[in-house]
């Protein structure tokens, strides 16, 4: 028997907990931005996906009006760094509610490297960086979806196999439902897509 729960916006927190427990695993956008005053920011966002293939548009959601959102709108640029296992503790620590004048790269002792097409730095120890210009936003009140047009991709050769990013080498992190639950890639299933064959 299934429990039936009509959505009630007044109980938004309860439903957010349900959604983040069933929409899993969620990849993490480790977003680096820079403020109008030149202060760099780095924060994880677990509502993140691809919006469009061509043109390449990616999106992340700022739950609450956070520094990443403000900077991406004010400057029109951001970088999504791959949140990988080797950076697990740093990714988690970058979610601390630092005030806007604090540079998370400096606070966390993270090495930065220059981007090619945008101003915000990339995380040097992250194997992949997606440099984006802000294409627009969609405001839902408490949450704002940020859309970015891909401008440049940087991939460490160490995570490539035959020229293609290798999931085993990338070791991406994901968020689960509990407030402290994260996951790594487990068993990988492979199956070919079945073509439609009309009956003769």
Outline the structure in words.
The chain has a domain at 27-41 and 75-138: Electron Transport, Fmn-binding Protein, Chain A (Pnp Oxidase, Chain A, Roll), CATH 2.30.110. The chain has helices spanning 12-22, 67-75, 88-93, 104-108, 167-170, and strands spanning 26-27, 29-34, 40-45, 48-52, 57-63, 77-82, 112-113, 122-123, 128-139, 143-155, 160-161, 164-165, 174-175, 182-183. The longest helix is centred in the N-terminal third of the chain and has 11 residues, at 12-22. The mean pLDDT is 96. The chain is α+β, with helices and mostly antiparallel strands and 200 residues long. The strands form four sheets. It has a seven-stranded antiparallel beta sheet, with helices on one face. It has a three-stranded antiparallel beta sheet with strand order 1-13-14, with no helix packed on it. The protein contains five helices and 14 strands.
Could you tell me how far the N terminus lies from the C terminus, measured between alpha carbons in angstroms?
41 Å
CATH superfamily of the domain at 27-41 and 75-138: Electron Transport, Fmn-binding Protein, Chain A
> The CATH topology of the domain at 27-41 and 75-138, please?
Pnp Oxidase, Chain A
Average pLDDT reading: 96
Please report which band the strand proportion falls in: under 5%, 5-15%, 15-25%, 25-35%, 35-45% or over 45%: 25-35%
The major beta sheet can be summarized as: 7 strands, antiparallel
| Number of alpha- plus pi-helical segments | 5
Give helix % range.
Answer: 10-25%
The CATH architecture of the domain at 27-41 and 75-138 would be Roll
């Amino acid at each position: 028997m299934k429990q039936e729960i009509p959505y009630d916006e007044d109980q938004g927190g309860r439903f957010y907990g349900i959604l983040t427990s069933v929409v899993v695993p969620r990849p993490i956008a480790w977003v680096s931005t820079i403020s109008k005053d030149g202060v760099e920011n780095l924060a994880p966002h677990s509502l993140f996906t691809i919006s469009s293939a061509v043109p390449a548009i990616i999106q992340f959601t700022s739950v609450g009006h956070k520094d990443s959102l403000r900077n991406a709108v004010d400057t029109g640029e951001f970088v999504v760094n791959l949140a990988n296992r080797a950076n697990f503790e740093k990714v988690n620590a970058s979610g601390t509610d630092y005030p806007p004048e604090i540079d998370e790269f400096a606070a966390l002792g993270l090495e930065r490297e220059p981007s090619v097409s945008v101003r915000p730095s990339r995380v040097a120890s992250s194997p992949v960086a997606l440099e984006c210009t802000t294409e627009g936003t969609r405001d839902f009140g408490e949450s704002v979806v940020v859309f970015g047009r891909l401008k440049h991709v940087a991939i460490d050769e160490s995570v490539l196999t035959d020229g293609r990013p290798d999931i085993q080498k990338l070791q991406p992190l994901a968020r689960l439902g509990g407030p402290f639950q994260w996951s790594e890639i487990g068993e990988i299933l492979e199956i070919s897509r079945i073509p439609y064959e009309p009956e003769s």
